[in-house]
Amino acid sequence: MATLKDASTEVQSQQMAMLERMLEDVNVAAFSDKWGPEKVLRVYDPNLGMEGMLIIDNTALGPGKGGFRIRAGLTPHEVFGLARTMTWKCSLAGLPFGGAKGGINADPYSIDKLSYVRSFARAVSAHVPDEWVSAPDMNVGEEEIAAFVEVIGDKKAATGKPERMGGIPHELGTTGFGLGVGIETTLGILSEFVPVQKTVDGLTVAIHGFGNVGSEVAKYLVRKGAKIVAIGDFWGGAYSAKGIDIDVAMKHAYATDEAHSCKHCKGAKEIGRDEVLEVECDVLIPAAVGNVITDRNASKIRAGLIVEGANNPTTPAGEEILFKKGILILPDMLANSGGVIGSYAEYLGKSIDEAFAMIDSKIRENTKLVLTSSISGDVVMLPRAVAMMIAKERVQKAMERRINKGSH
């Protein structure tokens, strides 16, 4: 018969194995460079089995901004990549934020999420909000953020809070709104250099991913006269050359099972999930997951312009093929920054209307800056390369100012 001592020994062994694994699977030297990361935290709650991580990449411009996610199999390398993306995104957007990201390694469907979130918040509280300002991310919504903020005890601990807490929830569609503004601005700029239409009216659009971002940008563009010819989600897609009825399509937004998938959208033909990427259209918006446009399918894409709603949807090899085909890409760090700009407005205590006005202004300003620099010279440069140059230069100057300030 097992004794209490045996049970205690087994628990200790499990905890030691967990800690050893946590130490083994992170090698900071593998992804560190002159930009960061500044801090890598691994936290563990033996009572819950909560394994969390926080990576603060760079705070030269301000506290690291970036949400936290809950996903089984989450690794420090994944979190670091997301934190670094936030460093560049906040810099390019002209916000006084650095980059950071957090996460909990767990199956969100088999845990008490709020208990895990509260445990995680207690573990990282010393760094919030001075070094990290959080937000919703994968499997983390406004109620989880509310729990996080309540534990920290400071409303500036995170953005994306419920409206009852003075928040501007991401569910209001700030990212999708920003994409729409970016498309409008891009057309206006491109029309000065090449023979393309100047307005959204009559534009044909395909959207790969019909969740919060995809559905909101669809509504924005349709209001402006665009025609959505294809939509898709995890289970499949729908296509109509005449245009999909957006009111009907919205019944399939945020689908969580195949029965509610947009592939069943009435008045449209069912197509494969990835066929949405290959539909002939003026604008393609990949708004689902990363690495969906690669060297394997880039040659099949028939859009004139790609506007990235997802994070890292295009691989470098895929982008090179598209560039040679003359297909312009508005990169994610520019195009989908409406969410983080809205977060900054919330951080400042602005109203929802003020947040959307700020998104509109900054997206137009930054899109014009990147695109004019990209196409107005003797040699056309990738907009992504231009965006990265601008972002890095701003962070570099901020790092130098911090060093000079510290030396006095």
Describe the structure.
The structure is a single chain. This protein has 408 residues and is an alpha/beta fold. Helices cover 41% and strands 15% of the residues. It folds into two domains: 4-164, Rossmann fold (3-Layer(aba) Sandwich); 174-376, Rossmann fold (3-Layer(aba) Sandwich). It is built from twelve helices and 13 strands. The chain has a seven-stranded mixed sheet with strand order 10-9-8-7-11-12-13, sandwiched between helices. The longest helix is centred in the C-terminal third of the chain and has 25 residues, at 383-407. The model has no long low-confidence stretch (mean pLDDT 91).
How big a fraction of the residues is strand?
15-25%
Fold-level CATH name of the largest domain: Rossmann fold
Q: What is the average of the pLDDT values?
A: 91
> How helical, in percent, are the residues?
40-55%
Rg, Å, rounded: 22 Å
Q: Can you identify the CATH superfamily of the largest domain?
A: NAD(P)-binding Rossmann-like Domain
At the first level of CATH, the class of the largest domain is: Alpha Beta
Helix count?
12
Number of structural domains: 2
Could you list the spans in which at least 5 consecutive residues all have pLDDT below 50? none
Overall CATH architecture of the largest domain: 3-Layer(aba) Sandwich
* Structural class by secondary-structure content: alpha/beta
Principal-axis shape equals globular
Strand order of the largest sheet: 10-9-8-7-11-12-13
Number of strands: 13
Major sheet size, sense and barrel closure: 7 strands, mixed
Please provide the ordered H/E string of secondary-structure elements: HEEEEHEHEHHEHEEHEEEHEHHHH
C-alpha end-to-end distance: 68 Å
